[in-house]
Specification:
This protein is mainly alpha-helical. The protein is built from seven helices and no strands.
Length: 210
């Protein structure tokens, strides 16, 4: 009797195994459409790179030597036609190549009158808070302010005091000053990080387990 049961049991098990093997693949283990192997949102966020505006280069800290930005006694500025110098100065004003990192220009902070204090409208020399905070300078000329900006925000060396570049940038800054109106300055373009918008991949995954 036992001898007859064993072949019967073996036949049943074989039949079940064959049925399972013959089942359509989707009924066995259909791939989960909500579980892709590579999450398209997991790629490195291009906005995660270091934001040049994250740290305000004009903020107090890392004090500079005032002698770097103070015209040495006995030196004279470059002399030239104001109109021609201002035209050259405008190009320098908009050139990021002037900065040490090569990423910012004068226009990066000052387009549309942004980042100027109301005192910018006053004749130079006068007090500029950034120069007070970072160099202890209670009064500064316009060309010295240009030199200051080269060292502090632009993170590079100041111009030679007799250079045409310094004269050109100072001439253009003087023209910008003439059209500046206190209270009309625009907001700092670096305040709102364009990469700070909500990541569309950060929304709750409808496929996630509850």
């Amino acid at each position: 009797m036992k001898t007859q049961i064993r072949p019967l049991r073996a036949a049943i098990l074989t039949g079940l195994f064959s049925a399972v093997i013959a089942m359509p693949a989707p009924l066995i283990a259909a791939p989960n459409p909500c579980a892709p192997k590579v999450n398209p949102c997991a790629a490195k966020n291009p906005c995660a790179a270091k934001n040049p505006c994250a740290a305000n280069p004009c903020a107090a800290g890392n004090r500079i030597d005032p002698t770097l930005v103070t015209r040495p006694k006995g030196t004279k500025p470059y002399k030239g036609n104001h109109k021609e110098l201002a035209k050259e100065g405008e190009k320098l004003w908009n050139s990021a190549k002037l900065s040490g990192p090569g990423t910012i220009s004068c226009a990066s902070c000052h387009t549309g009158g942004a980042m100027f204090q109301s005192s910018f409208a006053k004749p130079y020399p006068h007090q500029v808070q950034m120069a007070v905070d970072n160099a202890g300078m209670k009064s500064i000329t316009l060309e010295e302010m240009v030199q200051f900006c080269m060292v502090k925000p632009m993170q590079t060396k100041p111009f030679a005091w007799d250079s045409r570049e310094l004269a050109a940038l100072t001439a253009y800054a003087a023209d910008v000053q003439k059209t500046f109106k206190p209270g009309k300055a625009t907001a700092n373009p670096c305040v709102a990080n364009p990469c700070a918008a909500k990541n569309p991949c950060g929304a709750k995954n409808p496929c996630a387990a509850r």
